[in-house]
């Protein structure tokens, strides 16, 4: 398949960079060559700014990676957040620059309690930082939020996921996003013990197993959004 892709690409003047081409699989690995050059296998890679992997901990790794990126973005605006600018100005920067960085591709996340706490902790820490509050100062997060008035990152993330799920369900064509979402995969047995949470599980908890049919009713889907984002 890759060799055919390489041949067809060359016919229209495109050259495959074998040093940058990687293969990721959850099956057996066999040596694959393009023009005599072996293609390396990888367990994960960054695609369109998001970590893609078959590894079981890929969701949490992506959240941690996103949080690290967001902190770098935060400190890149240190002059504003630590300066004598108004809280109104700091809120604008938080919502327009920091929030999009923290919640990028959040539509694809699996929201376990651990993940939710990581998102909340990251944003609360940034709020305390811009207010110049020390850890020993036992100010409640609710009181801090009243001062900063920033958009809640977790609520925003969940809202984005709910809207995205609705969009997928309402697609009329057979695009990949729709087909892969409803794809059930081969029949098999899940491991013994507590099962790992899946992307669709929290959506089903609110809208039921037939959530894709429910989502076609826009008004009903919008009403259910509040329950999902609580």
Report what the structure shows.
By secondary structure, this protein is mainly alpha-helical. It folds into three domains: 2-42, no CATH class; 55-151, no CATH class; 161-172 and 202-230, no CATH class. Helices cover 53% and strands 7% of the residues. The chain is built from eleven helices and six strands. The strands form three sheets. It has a two-stranded parallel ribbon with strand order 1-4. It has a two-stranded antiparallel ribbon with strand order 2-3. Strand 2 and strand 3 (37-38) form a beta hairpin. Helix 2 (58-76) packs antiparallel against helix 4 (87-102).
The Cα radius of gyration reads: 22 Å
**Low-pLDDT windows of residues:** none
Please report which band the strand proportion falls in: under 5%, 5-15%, 15-25%, 25-35%, 35-45% or over 45%.
5-15%
| End-to-end C-alpha gap | 46 Å
Overall helicity: 40-55%
Q: How many domains make up the coordinates?
A: 3
Oligomerization status of the protein chains: single chain
- Could you report the average pLDDT, rounded to the nearest whole number? 93
Strand pairing plus helix content: what structural class? mainly alpha
Q: What's the order of the H and E elements?
A: HEEEEEEHHHHHHHHHH
Strand order of the largest sheet: 1-4
Shape: globular
Question: How many strands in all?
Answer: 6
Largest sheet, if any?
2 strands, parallel
The count of helical stretches stands at: 11
């Amino acid at each position: 398949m890759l060799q055919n892709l390489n041949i067809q690409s060359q016919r229209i003047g495109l050259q495959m960079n074998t040093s940058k081409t990687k293969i990721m699989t959850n099956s057996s690995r066999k040596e694959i060559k393009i023009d005599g050059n072996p293609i390396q296998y990888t367990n994960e890679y960054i695609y369109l700014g998001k970590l893609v992997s078959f590894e079981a901990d890929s969701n949490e790794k992506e959240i941690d990676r996103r949080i690290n990126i967001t902190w770098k973005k935060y400190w890149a605006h240190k002059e504003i957040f630590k300066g004598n600018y108004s809280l109104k100005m700091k809120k604008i920067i938080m919502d327009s620059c920091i929030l999009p960085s923290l919640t990028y591709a959040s539509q694809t996340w699996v929201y376990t309690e651990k993940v939710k706490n990581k998102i909340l902790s990251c944003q609360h820490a940034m709020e305390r930082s811009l207010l110049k509050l020390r850890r020993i100062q036992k100010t409640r997060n609710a009181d801090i939020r009243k001062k900063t008035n920033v958009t809640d990152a977790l609520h925003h993330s969940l809202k984005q996921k709910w809207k995205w799920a609705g969009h997928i369900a309402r697609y009329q064509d057979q695009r990949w996003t729709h087909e892969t979402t409803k794809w059930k995969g081969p029949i098999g047995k899940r491991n013994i013990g507590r099962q790992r949470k899946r992307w669709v599980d929290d959506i089903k908890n609110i809208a039921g197993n037939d959530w894709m049919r429910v989502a076609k009713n826009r008004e009903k889907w919008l009403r259910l959004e509040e329950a999902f984002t609580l």
